Amino acid sequence: MTVAIEKPETSGPVEPKAPAKEPRQVSRTMVVAGILVSWLVLFAVLRGKQTLSLATADLTDLHRWFNDVNDSVGANRNSNPLFLYFFNEIRLVIDNLVTFVQHLISQPPPGRPLPQIGWLGVVGIAGYVSWAVGNWRVALLAVCGFTFFGLQGLWQESMDTLALTVSAVLVALLFAIPLGVWAGLSDRFNRIVTPFLDFMQTMPTFVYLAPLTLIFLIGPASATIATVIYAAPPAIRITAHAIRSVPETTAEAADSLGATRRQSLTKVLLPMSKRTVVMGVNQSIMAALAMVTIAALIDAPGLGKTVVQALQSLDVGTAFNAGLAIVVMAIVLDRVTTAASTREENARGSKNRFLKWRKPLLGAGAVVTAVLVYLSHTYLWAADFPGDGTVGSHIASAADSVTTWAQDNLSGLTNAIRDVITNVLLNPFQSLLTDSPWWLVGMVLVALAVVLGGWKAGITTAVCVGLLVGTGVWSDAMTTTASTLVATVLVMLLGIVFGVWMGRSMLVDRLVRPTLDAAQVMPPFVYLVPFLALFGATRFTAIVAAVVYAAPVAIKIIADGVRAVPETTVEAATSAGCSTRQIITKVQLPMSRSALTLATNQGLIYVLSMVVVGGLVGAGALGYDVVAGFSQGELYGKGLAAGLAIVLLGVMFDRITQAAARRTGAGA
What we know:
By secondary structure, this protein is mainly α. It has helices at 28-46, 61-76, 81-105, 119-133, 136-151, 155-185, 187-202, 209-216, 220-245, 248-256, 261-272, 274-294, 303-312, 316-349, 358-378, 380-383, 390-409, 411-435, 438-453, 455-471, 474-504, 506-521, 524-535, 539-563, 567-575, 580-591, 593-613, 621-631, 636-667. Helix 2 (61-76) crosses helix 29, helix 21 (474-504) runs parallel beside helix 24 and helix 21 crosses helix 27. The model is unreliable at 1-12 (pLDDT under 50).
């Protein structure tokens, strides 16, 4: 039986069905713009209501509770078992270590008018160690640098700073290197420790000080412990990276030859990662030096104390002289440790015929150094630096003269720059943040976090906003936020201009990058001094110093991002007739948006830490609260709450920008 299948009748050609229209997606930029417009509208209606403002001398219940805790800890410090057998013992050990190093090079021990090793011995040791781990050029730099401290009239202050730095780095590396090796060998431990390292490196240096003074009192011990906490994360992270960077085939070859886990670590992994580990030591030393100078706020001796006292009295000349000494010390320590990481590689590539004499010369140098140490221990002329620091007096006098000249002749320009940025950017934005109801600002921040970073970033931001309200310093936190965001905008403008320039030209990169590297070596305090001379003690001074402090890292990240854009893509755009401006704006910057987001993240964190330090030169807000908490006992609780607020701002900014960077990278 045949079944006939009838074809459907058609009156003409069959037209294909049109595809269903997809719902139009709204870009994140439009959503952000909508949130900001809504904020402005509500601000106009609700301005000045529920702002949670708090006068400088006013305290909340939380602040009073912190004060009571501080008083209670002080009253029971020598009776509470936790302090008696744990915290006090830690403080005693650290104090003894710092005192021992100080008695060696900076402070006279009991029964002696001068330290055990005088200036001639210290200079000899600095030169010999620099030569042994580096080369003769670095040794010459170290000798000249250390001699310069004496010529400045800052020998003892410099040695105090060096003593605290050395003590902190020794303790930090005692823990950091083993933890870094463990993190490099164990994926599980690496996952556990990474969030803690991220958190520790996110927090501005200020916030370590207040809680540590509660436990360990004000003084060198608290300063050293704070420095240890701040200096350890770079060494842990870089050591772990170094261990993980050793090729798996090398480790497998050692295992196949029967090497034990310990032998594989000591004979293969650590030797092959030595250069990177030394760079981790370099970063720890730089972090320690920066922290030691800031720890002058809790009575740490040294150059930082001189800078703080000079800044508080607006003595630009003295601050500049001490700041210059900090810069010189940073450069010397940086160059010595950098040379140590590359010495063996450079030696292998060198054809210098004197290399075979290196060991005999080092032996002779050790003898000469021992003689210098003996002379400096025995004879006054070799122990006490000769001269009265006239070079430092001339430097301070010159700095004061330049300051006076700048204020007399450049005040029109500097005041114009200050007024434009203050009136056009800072004041309106600060008013928007501080005069809006707190719940409105919180809703805006959470909404922006969700749009830019996702729900996890939104939840983190909501928690941070709630805790910020609880600290009782919401208004000051918003003032600091305004300064931070305005400074970050300026940092990104500089970063894009110079980063694109460096990314498109290797010649410019070779010329500019060394300056950026040197700028990143300098501790934050140093940046305040020249801008204090130009702009006086105002919040704008802190903003400009923060911009200069944070710009190098942003510039380098953006330059690397622009350079990573494939050349074939740029060549295709050029062959299509695009102008240089079109290539930058339509090709290189869009393809570098993950680098731009990362630069924003790093710029925010650097700016936040510097804006807070600016509390010393009139920045006010959270920075002032922290500084006042150290100097005025009744404001200790408020200062501690302000430190907590700084942490919350840092965590919130970091999580939003990191999440945005990940989403941008995934979208790329």
